[in-house]
Amino acid sequence: MNRISEQAGNVIKESIVDGGVDLQLSNGYARITAYNATTLRIRVGKNSFTTDHSFAVDNLRATVKLQVLKSEGTDKVYATDSLVVKVATHPFRVSIYNHNNQLLCADEATLGVSWYGDKVSCYKQLHSDEKFIGLGEKTGDINRRGNFYQNWNTDAPAYANNADPLYATIPFFIGVHDRLTYGIFFDNSNKSYFNFGGGADEELFHFGADDGEMNYYFFGGNTVASIINDYTNLTGRTPMPPLWSLGFQQSRWGYDNQEQLLTIAKTFREKKLPADVIVSDINYMDNYKVFTWSSKYPDVKGMLGQMKGMGFDMVTIIDPGIKVEKGYKAYEDGLAGNHFAKYPGGRPYIGHVWPGRCHFPDFTKEETRKWWGDQFKQPYIDNGVKGFWNDMNEPAAWGREFPNLIEFGEGKDKKTLYNVKNAYGLLMARSTYEGARRGLNGQRPFVLTRASYSGVQKYSAQWTGDNVSSDDHMLLGFRLLNSMGLSGIPYVGMDIGGFMGNPSPELFIRWLSLGVYSPLFRNHTCIDYNYREPWLFGEANTVKIRAILEQRYKLLPHLYSAFYQAHQTGMPINRMLPIDYTFDDNAYSNKYQNQFLFGNGLLVCPVASTQNSTEVYLPGKGNWYRFGNDKIYAGGSNYFVESPLEDLPVFIKAGGIIPMQSAVQNTKERGDGILYLHIYKGMEQNVYTYYEDDGNTYDYEKGVFYKRDIVYNPQSLLILKAKEGSFNSKFKKVKVVLHGFKQNTSKEYDLTDGEMVIQLPEYN
Q1: Residue 598 is part of which domain span?
Q2: Where does 585-744 show beta strands of DSSP type E?
Q3: Active site (catalytic) residues
């Protein structure tokens, strides 16, 4: 290996290609292409671009033309309708401007793209006020400036509050400086790293990988929301989830027989604690062999039929390790079909996990992904299972690390673990989702994954892995969720109460009340700790827990509408403050960085279980209403507010529209047939897109949905625009519930499909 670093050299030749330009360098090659007016792709490598591959991006072809402008001295200049790219030619360095000639991001003049052996890095100028957000599942503060991060998907049980790396690789971030924004997605699945000025003077930051090209997409949108839109337009967006998966999910490592599961389901119903899902961890299997059931489940179909009769669905865990055992169908078929990762020379790799000695599927191969997906039909789908939880897919084995020379793929597509490890969880989630979707004949599966790479949102939800029962981990968890959402993954969650540990009743209740405002609402714990069903904390606490669970179900119309926005634009459900308040320094403050918006206009302020009061920051202009009591606070200020366990600090923006429903025991119940529209008086117009579909099939892709814009006009008008789509709402009436008006009366109306104009009373 060359012990001295080498920088990209001079441009010696320019060639026009589809969507952009190729530049031959004195020591390599560069290509700049345009995907839309605000999205560029920049590739730099030692070799010419004869191949192209991405685990995250399905369509690698440029879609618009990069204009070639007149050169400025030795600089070559290119442009889209929104961006200007200036390329210094001696040596090759890239600077990107908006059309107001404001610099968004530029290579550091001395270093630019650099190589050190096989390692490749890109050094960028660091602006004095620059902040960085993103990178998905990363601990620490939401502003990444001054810190170093690695991406090497890792099984990290009971991880520390500053542990890195964790389970996921999302190499996408957003830079904010001088009231400007930009984004970068470094699409390289090798072990990668990002250093936002840590360990260096305040003049540069860099990112790179241990191998492969310098291959990144640059997003030049003028808002964080537009950058997220462009990033998810590239890497994909979430399908609409099955509605039942948004209800409460009860899980534990240790449930090991069907009588136990049925008793739990019956107890939820007897105690009128709303829930939709029972989750089975590894104990349901025969000696931990995937695609099997233990003898303690003698009538799986009957059990699931009884659960269905009580309004429950089931989720089963799936690990990638296939036990090496003669006569075991998955092993025999996988071996015969050449579906396992190998040592050089062709011998299938063996690692030890729960079943013992295991082979691991090679999900890089299309035929293996189909084989894997087809395995779900007989043991699971045919019995009534519609949810699948992918675990241990970093991939993990005892001793943690696979040998890096393990091979995946064949022929010209052959890769080693170096290239595949960070993408393995994504590929497993894809295989599971595609197989389950095929097998479910038009019904939506629920897929959950621990490990991931950019683009996983097309196939799966993700949770934050093996967390700990502590207030600090609870608060860290919401920073993780908010960062994952910003990074393109809207369906996220964590183990409520902590996977490892025994939460106090107060911690469990606080965590549960915060879980209401998390897309995935799952109570899960490790086999080594106390049982944690919601009725085990004493009768007085059961009353509190019942009210919390009911609140989640009341908010499902709001949550489902937020998912529609995520499906359409990539906007996350849990939104860290910098998305909407990008240039407000308080949005990045350590004091307020846990706060987030849950969909449009609903602000959640996490607080430790030990605190009965807390300091909150209410951003922006206009008023905010305390969700629990309608007390009004002026925006742009911080306040000390009460935070008892019964009343989490949650606020609604003035002018806000929050659709809700009556409390139900599960998502299959229709409730009282009334859509409750909570309207919070404000001085600015607001438009809320309300959305419904059947919550179960893909008919929404064919126009079978119910969508209508709800317009709040400060001149005391509420307008429900005519519905779009051919689906009929499950609600027959709409009840307008007023907050902050002179007369806070509630009035009920028949819900019609045409435009409805409702006169509101004068406000105080």
Answers
A1: 574-648
A2: 596-598, 602-604, 613-618, 623-626, 632-634, 637-642, 650-653, 657-660, 674-680, 686-692, 706-713, 717-720, 733-739
A3: 391, 394, 466
